[in-house]
Amino acid sequence: MTYIAKPKFHHPGLPKNELGYTHRDYEGKISTLCAGCGHDSITASIIEACYELSIEPHRVAKISGIGCSSKTPDYFLGNSHGFNSVHGRMPSVLTGANLANRDLIYLGVSGDGDSASIGFGQFAHSIRRGVNMTYIVENNGVYGLTKGQFSATADRGSKSKKGVMNTDNAIDLVAIALQLGASYVARSFSGDKTQLVPLIAAAIRHKGAAFIDVVSPCIAFNNHAGSTKSFDYVREHNDAVNRLDVLTGRDPITVDYAPGTVQMVEQHDGTRLALRKIDADYDANDRLAAMTFLQKHAAKGQVVTGLLYVDPDAEDLHAHLDTVETPLNSLEAKDLCPGSVALEKINASLR
Amino acid sequence: MSVQSPISSVNDFVVRFANVNGSGSASANELFARSILRHGVPVSPRNIFPSNIQGLPTWYEVRVTEDGHLGARGGVDLMVAMNPQTWDKDVASIEPGGYLFYDSTKPMPTSKFRADITVIGVPLTAITNSTYTDPRQRQLFKNIIYLGALCALLDMDPKLVEQLIGEQYKGKEKLLSSNVHALHLGRDWALQNLKCPIGLHVKKSDKVGDRIFMEGNSAAALGAVYGGATVCAWYPITPSSSVAEAFTSHCKKLRHDPETGKARYAIVQGEDELASIGIVIGASWNGARAFTATSGPGISLMTEFIGLSYFAEIPAVIMNIQRAGPSTGMPTRTQQCDIIACAYASHGDTKHVLLFPEDPAEAFEFAAQSFDLADRLQTMIFLMLDLDIGMNHRLCRPLKWDDARQYDRGKVMTAQMLDEPGRDFGRYLDVDGDGIPYRTYPGTHPTKGSFFTRGTSRDRYARYSEEGAIYADNMQRLVRKFETAQDMVPRPLQANAAKPTKYGVIYFGSTAPAMDEAIGLLEARGHQLDRMRIRAFPFHSSVASFIADHDFVYVVEQNRDGQLRQLIVNENGIDPVRLVPILHYDGTPITARFIANAIGDHQDHLKVTPLRKAVS
């Protein structure tokens, strides 16, 4: 319960990251979600990724919409500002925040109802603008807070807890994100933290629109037989194409990769992404191939996971708008106001 | 039928151009208006245009007014009838004794004219066709040729028109000389073939002074530049699109880093109004000054976010360029019809600050001020323009800026402040008793000052709470904040009648010039009125005392339901009987004649003639 103060007690032996922060410095309030909720595992993965990257906890802005998933930013990075905005409108709020201060890290947390239904348009447009962000959808295929209605990512033929069959086609947000030009696209499973943590870390270090679809079973309304978003179903049908190791600038490559089994990608900030191939033919730099691969495997009922696409040379919205390096929110009157002399000239031109 | 003598007037008449949309007439017509200004004679032009790109009728009306009456007058003294589609209606709208100017290339049956007007035929098509071969040139220069003919007919100084053409086509010699040539073609033909001048003249004067000629939308956009707005998100909608377009062009000239050439602003065309206001709110939450410009339908779409801005206390600015509603209404016609919609926008108990500029100069000032108000009050500020101010060039006082002026960023707690011993930061804690709490920008301090912004109820420390008392405490503080706003927003301006009177009039926004002129007309009918121009909501206490000081007060506005009147009644607990609505809402700008007639008739009824006197 959020009104219960979480104990601040730190075990003196807790390991610290490069900045001297412990795990606890990246935590937030106690979750109010159901015990066993997939979303809490994603929260833990976000904490882990931020800890490993040694991010200053207050330099992240957490922005969400409305729904179970959108509550989670209260449960991690307690020293960061969070914004639980309006249903389906996280992308626009995040875009505005990003425009105001390009120096923070923007973490958008949303759900399948939030991003695939009411906010489908905002999802699409923030991706196509190339907003520098990590956009995570905690995807469970149902509306949890309103008690189990299908969402737009529910597969056709999937059964609700009440036994109703979904007859509408599903929206695959990963496929849409690829089509719209997202420069980092991944899918993972809340039950596979070892896969998820590096995917989040690399997305945070990516400059551009990074999108991660995390299948996150709803323990209360969508974890039964006949559902295609249950723990069991996703475990059985998970088809991981690769495994990711995120190597920050200073680290030497300590892992020995067998030749031909790894794809190395270097991002803008020097972060190297080592992609251990599970599917030998999968190329994470090929957008078109990724789209075809996804479609083929989806047709077979498989849930393709891993880093599906990355463009390490992507540009973001600030580059498109050619904005100054100084965050716009720290410009002052002397930088912004043209003054009375310029105004006199304007007056003269209007006579 | 009595013989109607032609209207004779110097520097006081109305010319209306009837054109086809997309025929290139707009720039020639604007040139006409500017030329008269260069004679030192005030003009007030208005675009009357359809929601269409090409082909439908469009009109441009120029009121020439030595006395400086900038409201619409009504009636037409000289009709430049260039559109066969609207001929009959255009001819019918000419005042008795007025003039009709038309293209006489093709003969017209006499039944198409009126006996009580002066008809002036110029074979425009014949002249253009014998001079130009290119169809586009024929079209464009035809407009300049009729301008030339008008120059002769109205006794205008051609040098002044040439000078304006010279400024317009500076550096484009070929265009310049061909335009000047076309001008003289029309003027010479008129001088040789017609009786020039007609009864309407333009005579040089000195009534323009240092005033500028500007559109309200451009002025509001410039106010945003001066007020420090760095983020603009918008979605195209008439009549507001030119705000964002003007902001873009002002920023290109005024807002690039001199060293790197990079932009000190970000402008995003949103995918809809929801995204636009979302971007504005995200940017403002993060400490930038941000705004959007829209019109009625956009306001409807934005209302959920407007409620968030109110309740989560996030500064934001919306410029609402009002048009005739409801629904799609009349997208290219003017009204003041979103007063209630904006004052109480969004579900639940909400109230918002509205500013009502009267002209471009005030649009500039209020736009700049709106960012200070938004930051200081941490809430949504509406700048309420309308199509009449926004999309027409209006003569107004020059724009002014005091270089000593600093931006008021409101109560923002810095890292240094957070580290002060004993400092208690609660995002919704009313430390000063004015209802305004402190906020922090994201990323301020490693361990202090962060909070979770939400549209749900929360306590003074921004912690989620559904406790009734905590909710009510917060809602009461928001009322307190709104009371604080009352003394921060622009105050009403009051002007007393020449003689003491029991009657008053309240008006606002674009009604101002018509109202000022109507006062004179009413005085001539023997009616004295004290007047008050309201410039903002929440209403200053002087509004209630103004009403209390008069037997009753007329409230003049451009909507059907008397929305400002409703707001005054509702917010000040005024007896509705004491406020007499004077309503104009056909989509055309309100005129002095309309106001004077409506108020005058009402006043006449009050003057009860004693029975004995009446029968004798």
Report on the architecture of this protein.
The complex is a heterodimer of chains A (351) and B (616). Chain A has 351 residues and is α/β, with parallel strands linked by helices. Chain A has one domain: 3-Layer(aba) Sandwich (Rossmann fold). Chain A contains 12 helices and 13 strands. In chain A, the strands form 3 sheets. In chain A, strands 2-1-3-4-8-7-13-9 form an 8-stranded mixed sheet, with helices on both faces. Chain A is globular, with a radius of gyration of 21 Å. Chain A starts with 37 loop residues before the first helix and ends with a helix. The model of chain A has no long low-confidence stretch (mean pLDDT 93). Chain B has 616 residues and is an alpha/beta fold. Chain B folds into 4 domains: 193 residues, Pyruvate-ferredoxin Oxidoreductase, domain 3, CATH 3.40.920; 183 residues, Rossmann fold (3-Layer(aba) Sandwich); 78 residues, no CATH class; 114 residues, 3-Layer(aba) Sandwich (Rossmann fold). Chain B contains 20 helices and 23 strands. Chain B has a 7-stranded mixed sheet with strand order 11-10-12-13-15-14-21, sandwiched between helices. In chain B, helix 5 packs antiparallel against helix 6. Chain B is globular and about 90 Å long. Chain B starts with 8 loop residues before the first strand and ends with a helix. Strand 2 of chain A pairs parallel with strand 17 of chain B.
